[in-house]
Specification:
Blueprint (H helix, E strand, L loop, with lengths): L4 H33 L23 E7 L5 E7 H11 L11 H30 L3 H13 L3 E4 L9 H12 L10 E5 L10 H7 L4 H15 L3 E6 L4 E7 L10 E4 L4 E6 L19 E4 L1
Parallel strand pairs: 3-4
Antiparallel strand pairs: 1-2, 5-6, 5-9, 6-8, 7-8
Length: 294
C-alpha cells in the first residue's frame, strides 16, 4: 500500500525543521565558544560556586542571589571583612587626594572591589556556558538581574541635611523613569554615604540596594571582569547615570546610541533602574551625556 503524498510532504517538512533546529544550535555553540576564545568570557574557575548547591556554604557575611532569568538564581557570598574593606575604601579620606574626575573615582572603586567580585563573574560565566547563551543573552541576563533590584536613593549627608522638598523632588524625578510611576517601586533612602552618595560595587552586591550610579558602576565592574566592553554615562542636566554596552550588531530596535571617539565604537544606552530594554531612552540626546569611564 503506497502512502499518500501528504504523508511524504509532512515528513519532508519535519526533516527540514529538525535540520534547521540543529543548525541554530550549532551556530549558537560556535558563537558562544568563539566569544570565549576572543576574550569575551574568562575561563570558569574550577571552584566556581554551583547555581543550585544542596545547602548554603558557610559564609561569615551574607549570601545573596541574582535573578538572572525568570527561573534561575545565581548564588554568591560577600564575606563581612570584604564588605567592611570596600566600605572603608569608599570613604572620602581615601580619595580626596587621589582622584581629579568622577571617572577616576569610579575606577578606584572598581580596582579595589574587582578581586571580590571575580568569584561572582566566574559563576555567571559558568551559568552562561552551561546554558550556551549568546553574547546578547549574557548581557540581558546580567543587566536584568540588577534591574530587578529596588531603586534606593543613595545620598551623602544625613536626611536632616536635606530639605524635605529636595528629597521629594529627587524621588519625583526618578519616578518618571518607571513605566507605572508607582512610588512603591522606590526602596527609600540610604544616608551618610560619603563622599558623593554612591555605593561601591561590593556594597551593591552586599546590600542589593542601589540608585542609578551605584548600579552602573557595579555593572561596569562586573562586565569588565567577564570581558564585555561597556562605558558609564553621566548627565548633569538629567542628574542621572546610564550604562552603555558594546554590541557588534544591535538586535534591539532602540535607537539610543552614543559614539565614543576614544574607542571608536558605538555603545547602546541601557537604563538600569527599571526593566527597560537596551537602546530605549526617551528623548535621548548624546550632547547631554558624557562618557566618564570605559
Amino acid at each position: 500500500m503506497t502512502r499518500p503524498w501528504r504523508y511524504w510532504f509532512l515528513a519532508y517538512l519535519l526533516l527540514l525543521a529538525a535540520l534547521f533546529c540543529n543548525y541554530i544550535w550549532l551556530h549558537r555553540q560556535a558563537e558562544f565558544h568563539g566569544a570565549v576564545r576572543s576574550g569575551f568570557l574568562p575561563p570558569v574557575q574550577e571552584d566556581a560556586q554551583e547555581l543550585f548547591p544542596p545547602q548554603i556554604d558557610p559564609c561569615v557575611g551574607v549570601v545573596r542571589y541574582l535573578q538572572v532569568s525568570d527561573r534561575i538564581r545565581v548564588r554568591y557570598c560577600i564575606p563581612e571583612d570584604s564588605y567592611q574593606a570596600a566600605k572603608e575604601n569608599r570613604q572620602p579620606s581615601n580619595f580626596f587626594s587621589s582622584f581629579q574626575t568622577l571617572g577616576e573615582y569610579y575606577r578606584l572603586l572598581e580596582i579595589h572591589d574587582a578581586p571580590e567580585l571575580s568569584r561572582l563573574a566566574s559563576t555567571i560565566s559558568k551559568f552562561a556556558l552551561t546554558r550556551s547563551l549568546s553574547y546578547q543573552n549574557i548581557l540581558v541576563s546580567i543587566v536584568n538581574s540588577i534591574q530587578r533590584i529596588e531603586y534606593t536613593f543613595v545620598h551623602q549627608g544625613s536626611h536632616e541635611d536635606f530639605q524635605l522638598y529636595t528629597l521629594d523632588a529627587d524621588h519625583a524625578k526618578h519616578l518618571g523613569r518607571f513605566p507605572s510611576g508607582n512610588a512603591c517601586q522606590l526602596g527609600g533612602c540610604c544616608e551618610m554615604v560619603e563622599p558623593i552618595g554612591i555605593f561601591s560595587p561590593v556594597e551593591v552586591a552586599y546590600h542589593q540596594l542601589a540608585d542609578c550610579d551605584s548600579r552602573v558602576v557595579f555593572l561596569h565592574c562586573l562586565l569588565g571582569l567577564i570581558g564585555i566592553p561597556s562605558v558609564i554615562l553621566i548627565s548633569e542636566i538629567e542628574a542621572h547615570a546610564l550604562l552603555g554596552v558594546y554590541l557588534p550588531s544591535n538586535p534591539w530596535r532602540g535607537d539610543a546610541v552614543i559614539y565614543d571617539p576614544v574607542t571608536q565604537k558605538n555603545y547602546v544606552v541601557w537604563e538600569t533602574t527599571s526593566a527597560i530594554p537596551p537602546g530605549i531612552y526617551k528623548d535621548f540626546s548624546p550632547d547631554n551625556w558624557k562618557i566618564v569611564a570605559r
